[in-house]
Every structure is written in C-alpha cells, then in structure tokens.
Specification:
heterodimer; A: 61 residues; mainly alpha; 2 helices; 46% helix; 0% strand; B: 482 residues; alpha/beta; Amidase signature (AS) enzymes; 11-stranded mixed β-sheet; 16 helices; 11 strands; 40% helix; globular
Chain lengths: 61, 482
C-alpha cells in the first residue's frame, strides 16, 4: 500500500521540470498511489513468463 | 422512404442516403443543408462540434450535385456529409485535439482516413469535440461541454464525445472517432450509436494526434452496423505513411453482414457481465442479448478470463505513461494551458517508476495471451461496453479525495473496454436496450485479430433482432417540408 503525499509528488515532479500547485499535488498524489497499488498487485502474476511485446495486426504474441 | 420530414432524412443511414442519391431522389445540397440546419438548431446545447465547415460543405455539395447530374460518381460516399474527431488532421482546417494548446493549429494536409473518405466522395461537414488530447477526464472543455442527446445533463462518453453525439443526434451521416482504451465504444454505448474499434493496424493513424501509439486506432461511429461496415471498408488498409498498418487484404465487410450467427461460438465474459460494478439493468440487457443470439443459432457459453479485472490499471499505466512522454515538454513550459484534469492525469503517469510501467507491459502480454487463447476456441466474446449507463456530467467533476476513489474512478470502468485495446483485437459497441430512465445500454462484441467481418455480421444479426434503431433521442423535431 502506497501513501505518498503532496510534498513527495512535488519533489518527483521537479525532476521532470514540472512545478505543481497545492491542489494539483494533492490529487496527483492520490492518482499516483492508486497506480502504485494497482501495479503492485501485478507482482502476483507470472510476469517473467512473457516478454512485453505490444501487439501486431496479425495478433502474433 | 418519405422525405416529407427532414428528421426522417437526417436519421436515415448513410447507406440509405447514398442509395437515394443514386436514384436521384435526394441531392447532396439537400442533405448538407438539412444537417447544417440541425447543427444550427441543436448544437448550441449538445456541443458536438468544435468547427462547422458549412461554407465549404455547401460548395462541395454543389460540385457533387453537378457531377451526379452528369453521371459522375466519385465513390460510395458521393455527396454524403461526414464529420471527424478533432484529433484527425484536416488540410487548412483548425485541428485542436480538444486542447487550448492547439487553438491555432491548422494542418497542411489531411490525415489518411479523412483523405480516403473524401476520395470516396464524402463531404467534410465539421470537426467534432473530444476530451482534451483524447485522454478522458477533462473537467472544463475549452470548446464547450459536450452533452448526451438522450439527457443533456448526462455524459456523452469519451474521448470521441462529439462523434457519439453527432451520430446519435443525426447531425451528419457518419463520423469517425479514435479508440485507445474505449474512446469509440464508450460514446457509442452512452449515446446509443454503433462504434467499431478495428484491429490495431487495420486502419492508418497517419495524421492522428497520438494518445498512446501502441493502442490508438481510428474507427467509425454510425447509426447502423451497415454504415460501420461501409466506412471501415473505405478507411482500412495499408498506408505507407503508417508503418504499423497491416498489408492484409481488406475484405468486403458489407458482403458479410447477412452471415448471421449460426454455428458461431460466443463466450459471455463473466468477469464483466456479472462484475460487482455492473449495473443490474446493464447486466439484464446484455444477458438478454446473449439469449437472443443463442436463439438465432449461436452456441453461447460462459467464459472466465481472470486477468480482465487488471486491464483498467494496466491500460492506464501504459497509455498514460506514453502520453506523459509525449506531453512532457508542454507540461513543463505551458502547464496552465491544459485542463486541470488532463494535467493531473499526465503528471501522475509521468511519475510512475519505469520498473512498474515495464511490469504493466508484461501484464499486458499475459492479458492478451488469455484473450487470444479464448478467441482460439471462441469466435466472439460478449460483454457490456460500460458497467453503467451514462452518468451525470456533475458526477465526475468533483476533486479526487483519496487513492481508493482514484482507483474506482479511473481504473474500474476501463476494465470493460481496455481488454480489446490491450490485445489489439476488434470490438464493436451497439445498442442493446435502454434503462428505465431512458438511457442507452451498450453491448460489446470482441473478435479475433482482423476478423471484423465476423464482428460486424454478429452485430448486424443482433441489430435486426433488437430493432432498436427506430428509437430516437428526445430532441426537438423539424417541421415537415412543404
């Protein structure tokens, strides 16, 4: 479970040369924590069994 | 068809309109004029259009009329007015991608899909509203709040919002949208239209502002399945300017429309039909459609794909991180020109660790593997397009108050349309009923790669059985012509 706060988000965004106001930083923290929780749940899957090939029109994997 | 009422004319399918033109019972000028009148009367509230090309459309219509009088037909869309999502380039015409950042952007050339519709005789009547940069979640639309024609306090769906509205409210004959994670199918579902996402690579994206290149796909939003087949046949095929397009031959999609569903094996996706988020009226309508298809001779069975609930989060991580990379420079230098919803979505995605994005890419491969395995023994998967009917516009403009709410609002519903996007397979949304409140419900059919003919054939079989196409949004009617 992730619990980054607005100040953490501000510092991370600064690395991308993006400055954030208070309202943006708070909502982005909620969104980023949701992402990290959702993606963390993927660790239960056999991710190393496949390569991250995007797709192809003919459906080849 | 009686042409005494222009509403009858406006709501007729493009295929029917084209036939009437060949029979000299309808002229391009008459049709363009009828749509311009409807746009003028209805679009002040619906806000489907960002730009209306009234003057040039009438010039094109007069030329088409003159050519038709001489027996010169450019193609199957000769004299048929179409409109496209403002994410698609149009030569000499403002193309904003729904953003204030591109408020002065006028491309020098047409996108491939627009060029192909014009080559087929189509007349561009306007550019259609969308969520900013086709990403969804726009809080304040810079070119007006698009509204659902069935209830204008409700969301029309996105990101191809204007395409869904214009098709359902009969503001033009046919429209094009772009579907990354459901952006054609969601507005089709919410607005009661037909929306087709073709196989990834079936249709050129040249001249389409990217949302996420690995999943973007252009597709039609129309009032009938036949029109979707007509449009797909015109825009599909290899394009040397888009190296991801398939070289596979383009079949005659309209010829396959009457194939029916006998002997087809259809899997009802239990995770989506019976999911906790699925509204009971949506579940009921989709189950009824499955029973009806079985009655028409399809072999219908339940199928469980346990990875599907992960699709929304995986899609968002991949789509949004691609988009964040595309927008990083503008986010740093022009952040105030973005809508706040778009800006927050893009910045959040830009902060996801690279390792987590890479895991999402591997999860995508697993989800695709599961979908393709199911489609190895089944011809189609069946599911709701959206877990619920169109929500009130006001319901998603409040600030996000927690990570749990962020997950519910941004990932959950996307697990319904993103499986087809992640797998790169074709999927269609078409009406399958209405709620007691009178809002449309969308049925989704998902097919094998490049098997659009099967998808369209089954969709046509359902459309004929359901007989919902005569039901129209409660819009002011046009007086009869003298």
């Amino acid at each position: 479970m992730h619990d980054l706060g607005p100040e953490d988000v501000r510092k991370l965004a600064a690395a991308l040369s993006i400055s954030l106001d208070g309202e943006d930083a708070m909502e982005i923290a909620h969104r980023l924590n949701a992402f990290l929780d959702a993606l963390g749940a993927l660790d239960r899957l056999p991710l190393d069994r496949v390569e991250p090939w995007p797709t192809s029109p003919e459906g080849a994997v | 068809m009686s042409l005494g009422n222009t509403d009858e004319l406006a709501f007729a399918s493009a295929s029917r309109q084209a036939a009437l033109m060949r029979e000299k019972r309808l002229s391009p000028v008459e049709l363009v004029t009828a749509y311009l009148e409807r746009i003028g009367r209805l679009d002040g509230r619906l806000r489907a259009f960002i730009t209306v090309c009234g003057e040039s459309a009438l010039v094109d219509a007069k030329r088409a009329e003159s050519e038709a009088a001489k027996g010169q037909w450019r193609g199957p869309l000769h004299g048929i007015p179409f409109a496209v999502k403002d994410q698609l380039d149009t030569a000499g015409i403002l193309t904003t991608s729904g953003s204030a950042l591109l408020r002065s952007h006028v491309p020098a050339e047409d996108s491939t899909v627009v060029a192909r519709l014009i080559q087929a005789g189509g007349i561009l009547i306007g550019k259609l509203n969308l969520t900013e940069f086709a990403l969804g979640g726009t809080l304040r639309f810079p070119y007006g709040q698009p509204r659902n024609p069935w209830n204008d306090e409700h969301d029309p769906g996105g990101s191809s919002s204007g395409s869904g509205i214009a098709a359902a409210a009969a503001l033009c004959s046919i429209t094009l949208g772009e579907d990354t994670g459901g952006s054609v199918r969601s507005p089709a579902s919410y607005c009661g239209a037909v929306g087709l996402r073709p196989t990834w690579g079936r249709v050129s994206r040249h001249g389409c502002f990217p949302a996420a290149w690995s999943m973007d796909q252009v597709g039609p939003l129309t009032r009938t399945v036949e029109d979707a087949a007509l449009v797909l046949g015109l825009i599909a095929g290899y394009d040397e300017r888009d190296p991801t397009t398939s070289r596979s031959a383009v079949p005659d999609y309209r010829a396959a429309l009457n194939a029916g569903v006998k002997q087809l094996r259809i899997g009802v996706l239990t995770e989506l039909v019976d999911g906790a988020d699925t509204h009971p009226e949506v579940r009921g309508a989709v189950r009824e459609a499955a029973r009806a298809l079985a009655g028409l001779g399809a072999h219908v069975e339940e199928v469980s794909l346990p990875l599907i609930p992960h699709a929304g989060g995986v899609f968002m991580a991949l789509c949004d991180s691609e988009a964040a990379g595309r927008h990083q420079s503008w986010l740093a230098t022009r952040p105030g020109e973005y809508d706040a919803g778009t800006r927050r979505r893009l910045v959040a995605a830009g902060l996801i660790p690279a390792t987590a994005v890479h895991r999402a890419a591997r999860a995508r491969a697993l989800i695709r593997e599961q979908i393709l395995a199911a489609l190895g023994r089944l011809d189609l998967l069946l599911a709701p397009t959206s877990p619920h009917p169109a929500p009130p516009i006001a319901s998603h403009t409040a600030p996000v108050a927690s990570k749990e709410e962020a997950g519910r609002r941004f990932f959950g519903r996307r697990s319904y349309t993103t499986p087809a996007s992640l797998a790169g397979v074709p999927a269609i949304s078409l009406p399958c009923g209405f709620t007691t409140a009178g809002l449309p419900i969308g049925l989704q059919l998902i097919g094998r790669p490049l098997a659009e003919s099967t998808v369209l054939g089954a969709a046509r079989a359902w459309e004929k059985t359901a007989a919902l196409s005569d039901r129209r949004p409660p819009l002011p009617t046009t007086p009869s012509r003298s």
